[in-house]
Specification:
Layout: H1 3-15, H2 18-25, H3 29-43, E1 48-50, E2 55-57, H4 59-85, E3 92-97, H5 99-104, H6 106-116, E4 121-126, H7 129-137, E5 143-147, E6 155-169, E7 179-180, E8 189-192, H8 196-205, E9 213-217, H9 221-229, E10 234-238, E11 249-254, E12 259-266, H10 274-290
Parallel strand pairs: 3-4, 3-5, 7-11, 8-9, 8-10
Antiparallel strand pairs: 1-2, 5-12, 6-10, 6-11, 6-12
Length: 293
Amino acid sequence: MSLVKYRAFIHVVEHGSLTKAARLMGYSQPGISKMIESLEDELHVTLFLRNHSSLELTENGKQLYVFCKQIIKYEDALLDTAKAMNGLITGSVRIGALNSIIVEFVPELIRAFSEDYPIIQIYLYETSFLGIIEQLKDNLLDIGFTSKFEAKGLEFIPLFKDPIRLIVNKNHPLASYKTISIKDLNGCDFIMIPSIGDDLINVIKGEEKFTPVVKYYVHSDVAAVAMVSKNLGVYIISELQCDNLPDNVIKLNFEKDVYRIMGIGINSLKTSSPTLKELVKVSKIKAKEYLSL
């Protein structure tokens, strides 16, 4: 069975078009269509539901897509390793990161890495903590920049400390405080992202007893900041996410030095390709320049 058919299948799924897949792979559109049909015959399944205007991935196709991605990942790792044995680092890397990491840290990392390895293709995906973890486990990403809290079930490589802050509306009673303690938070209405907020609360309270009164649950920092700007509650946030806050939102420091550890989540560094190992190495160097762990 030719792996080029797997690649064709993956490109069609990810780009939603036989024509785009053909252009990327240097084949004709009928050639890609024949590859997909041949793959369906070999696997004895229907991968796509076809109509005049689009292709729709079947449930069987969705399951096999994940396996095809894994197979191609290992083939790429094999080829990269063989090339590395001859002094060449090639291939591609799929990086997942939060918006705050993309804005503050990743561009400089990519610039430095690309200077040393200009022929490596880099795919950067903005996603959530949960999205990074799920896509790493499904082998849709190679590495993810995440926090130690969220990297459960993955190998985690620490890079730097990201201080934790509290943001409040300028008209909130805490707005005049220079620093705050856990006791100051009693009686506050909290805005929180499920699970992530709990982890941050555990960090800031330490050994002290404290249960936040959560009035609103949200699923993004953008939504939380917008609600704070309307004085609907307070929100625990990291320093990385504090750039470009609205003028009526104030950032407060905690009395204690509280932070989360940011770093790289990866399935296994030991079994990763030489390309990925080099990216991790460069990430460690750039992290030392950015914030000292």
